[in-house]
From TrEMBL:
Catalytic activity reported: (S)-2,3,4,5-tetrahydrodipicolinate + NAD(+) + H2O = (2S,4S)-4-hydroxy-2,3,4,5-tetrahydrodipicolinate + NADH + H(+); (S)-2,3,4,5-tetrahydrodipicolinate + NADP(+) + H2O = (2S,4S)-4-hydroxy-2,3,4,5-tetrahydrodipicolinate + NADPH + H(+)
EC code: 1.17.1.8
Dihydrodipicolinate reductase N-terminal domain mapped to chain residues: 4-111
Organism: hydrothermal vent metagenome
One function term, GO molecular function aspect: 4-hydroxy-tetrahydrodipicolinate reductase
InterPro entries documented for this protein: DapB_C (IPR022663), DapB_N (IPR000846), DapB_N_CS (IPR022664), DHDPR_bac (IPR023940), NAD(P)-bd_dom_sf (IPR036291)
Protein name stated in the entry: 4-hydroxy-tetrahydrodipicolinate reductase
Pathway the protein acts in: Amino-acid biosynthesis; L-lysine biosynthesis via DAP pathway; (S)-tetrahydrodipicolinate from L-aspartate: step 4/4
One cellular component (GO) term of this entry: cytosol
GO terms for biological process, alphabetical: diaminopimelate biosynthetic process; lysine biosynthetic process via diaminopimelate
Dihydrodipicolinate reductase C-terminal domain ranges (all copies): 115-238
Length: 243
């Protein structure tokens, strides 16, 4: 059986890579897609700028303003949702929790398994009593949100209840963690974490060579999530299922 996937944000950087990967996928295909209002984007044999009620699952890489409509459609059609849209508000996350009572939902800032393994490592770092943590995230010039959702998630693995504050257009602080955003060239994504205490310095760097890593991750997760019961799932749930 071929998995039918709806893609919200199909004309975006990740959306187009989802389409390219699914063209060579023997077990899944693009059923339909959503693009920005008034967009002239089109793909041969794929219906865009419309919802399809017979998609088996939706993958969302849209915008915070479009997200609510996507989520509502998934609830109404009882369709599972994988969302990687960043810049979501606290209200959006409450809506995701409510939606999970009716459908399977997985929301993540990054679909690279390696990044999520780093998150698990950072969750344990507080045991080393860090006195200083700096996170630098570098992305392509087209990425609008700052700091990246991944940088925020990494920081919250160390300070779960930290509040993000803006210092200036490129510098932020979450509790006592410094976060710097850089936008340059066509970089897929680099996250550098520098941690320091009295006795040692730890440096961790993850560099994505291509955005395909995020698109392929979302497809793999969609194939797993589509058979799960309604609920709110995490990348950790998915990674555990692989063992």
């Amino acid at each position: 059986m071929i998995l039918k996937i709806g893609i919200a944000g199909i004309s975006g950087r990740i959306g187009q890579r989802l389409v390219a990967l699914l063209q060579d996928d023997e077990t899944a295909q693009v059923k339909c897609g959503l693009v920005a209002k008034n967009s002239r984007f089109s793909i041969k044999d794929i219906e865009v700028n419309t919802y399809c009620n017979d998609a088996d699952i939706w993958i969302d890489f849209s915008t915070p303003s479009a997200f609510e409509t996507v989520l509502r459609h998934c609830i109404e059609t009882k369709t599972p949702l994988v969302t990687g849209t960043t810049g979501l508000s606290k209200k959006h996350f409450i809506e995701i929790e409510n939606a999970a009572q009716h459908i399977a939902v997985l929301s993540a800032s990054n679909f690279a398994i390696s990044i999520n393994l780093i998150q698990n490592l950072l969750s344990s770092y507080t045991q080393l009593s860090p006195s200083k943590v700096n996170i630098t995230e570098t992305h392509h010039i087209h990425k609008a949100d700052k700091p990246s959702g991944t940088a925020i998630t990494l920081a919250r693995n160390i300070k779960p209840h930290g509040i993000l504050k803006k210092i200036d257009s490129n510098n932020f602080i979450l509790d006592d963690i410094n976060i710097k955003s850089i936008r340059t060239g066509e970089i897929a994504g680099i996250h550098q974490i520098d941690m320091d205490n009295e006795f040692e310095t730890i440096n961790i760097c993850h560099s994505a060579k291509t955005p395909k890593i995020f698109a392929q991750g979302a497809i793999d997760i969609a194939k797993w999530l589509v058979v799960q019961q309604p609920g709110l799932y995490t990348m950790s749930d998915y990674i555990e299922s692989l063992s």
